[in-house]
Amino acid sequence: MTNKPIALVTGASSGLGENFARALAASGHDLVLVARTGPALEKLAGELEQSHGAKCEVLVADLADADQRATVAARITDGAVVDTVINNAGFGHYGAFSGLPLTGEVGQIEVNILALVTLSHAALGVMVPRRSGKLLNVSSIGAFAPAPGGATYSATKAFVLSFTEALHDEVMKDGVHVTALCPGFTRTDFQQRAGVKTSGVPNAAWSDAASVVAAGLAALDRNQAVCVPGVLNKFVAVSPRFGPRGLTRRISAGVMKRLDAPQAPAPG
Ligand SMILES: NC(=O)c1ccc[n+]([C@@H]2O[C@H](COP(=O)([O-])OP(=O)(O)OC[C@H]3O[C@@H](n4cnc5c(N)ncnc54)[C@H](OP(=O)(O)O)[C@@H]3O)[C@@H](O)[C@H]2O)c1
């Protein structure tokens, strides 16, 4: 490592995480890249070292596994000082809950919630006494309404939003930044891994990963509690406040139907 600030990014092997790593390398960070797919991380590390002179540690870990979560947490608490933690790794399975394998539903809770809580605890445990540091947790626009057809996923993201907002206020006085990023539909491998078709989602609803990441990092820099990138997504986030919850659930179920959710999820 050099004397540059270090950022740790989970889920750096593709999509938003890869874009976080690229943006942070471009803004002068060294990196700790975390995911299960070692070769993708190694390739990205080589590229970022070449293009930005960023030193990259590759930390291959399955965040659904408690011991491997502990290893990543130990990198934050015990290794060279980590200035920024991006809890980005996550996945969703779609379909009626009762027809989905329990392992996938529990897996979402392990990765989307347990890993994020474990690494947030490690991060704030060292950042608060140091009175500096930044933590960004990736939630979703799905956090703002229950989603029949994606019940577990939207509930995990509601947890992330509520949890992160509370942390933001807890550490505000300590000089530590905490932000929840709530993207809408973003072009990554996410939907394909979830086994859904997206042809029914209008073009206007999609964002590109680089612009979502730029919005998230700008919000983290100014210590904004919640960042919902995109005008349409902001409207979607706010509108459930003004209607009855039954109507919100029906609208949400309508969006999920447009994903043509299969009953059996793809692995991932
Ligand atoms: N794309 C969207 O439309 C959208 C919208 C709202 C929120 N989000 C959120 O954005 C985040 C990033 O998703 P994405 O869109 O970039 O999807 P993606 O391209 O599928 O990337 C997901 C990342 O999470 C990692 N990951 C998944 N399970 C893991 C595990 N058990 N252990 C370690 N890493 C794991 C994957 O790496 P490996 O497979 O190599 O482990 C991958 O790098 C997720 O939290 C997702 O919920 C996405």
List keywords for this structure.
9 helices; seven-stranded parallel β-sheet; binds NADP nicotinamide-adenine-dinucleotide phosphate; alpha/beta; 49% helix; 268 residues; globular; Rossmann fold
Biggest sheet layout:
7 strands, parallel
The named CATH superfamily: NAD(P)-binding Rossmann-like Domain
CATH topology: Rossmann fold
The helix tally amounts to 9
Strand order of the largest sheet: 3-2-1-4-5-6-9
- SSE class: alpha/beta
Summarize model confidence as the mean pLDDT: 94
The CATH level-2 architecture is identified as 3-Layer(aba) Sandwich
Whole-Å distance between the termini? 32 Å
The helix/strand order is EHEHEHEHEHEEHEHEHH
Provide the domain count: 1
In terms of per-residue confidence, which ranges show pLDDT below 50 for 5 or more consecutive residues? 263-268
Hetero groups in this structure are: NADP nicotinamide-adenine-dinucleotide phosphate
Gross geometry: globular
At the first level of CATH, what is the class? Answer: Alpha Beta
Helix content: 40-55%
Question: Strand fraction band?
Answer: 5-15%
